[in-house]
């Protein structure tokens, strides 16, 4: 049974991840449990520069849509905050015994492809999105599947 954990000190000294939501699984819809964090400066948890979500578990949705989803507000783009947040969220993944994270993006989304490369993620494949998947319904026909290793640093969270 999945149990959400509380994480403190998710920071690299420049940014921090601030817990925003615990999103329960909806297995009927194929949604695994997820954490949503705000991306904020290390010294100002109230300034939300963007968000990152970690989906915990493996299924068709996390294969095509990824374990990680992120967004950085326009005014803060160009500072590698998404890549830094991806690296920080690996601590949460490690606490749930995940060994790899999938980050997916449209093959034409150059900023997201660069973000994946900056994290050290490897391009595993470019795959066709099946017609029944939500991404396909939104007009996506292909997706890049990047794989990011999760260092086994042990349990970082506290319940």
From TrEMBL:
EC numbers, comma separated: 2.3.1.-
Entry annotated with the keyword Transferase: yes
Source superkingdom: Bacteria
One GO molecular-function entry: acyltransferase activity, transferring groups other than amino-acyl groups
Pfam families, per the entry: Acetyltransf_3 (PF13302)
Gene3D superfamilies xrefs: 3.40.630.30
This protein's UniProt keywords: Acyltransferase, Transferase
UniProt key word Amino-acid biosynthesis: no
Residue ranges of every copy of the N-acetyltransferase domain listed in the record: 35-122
InterPro entries: Acyl_CoA_acyltransferase, GNAT_dom
The name this protein goes by in its record: GNAT family N-acetyltransferase
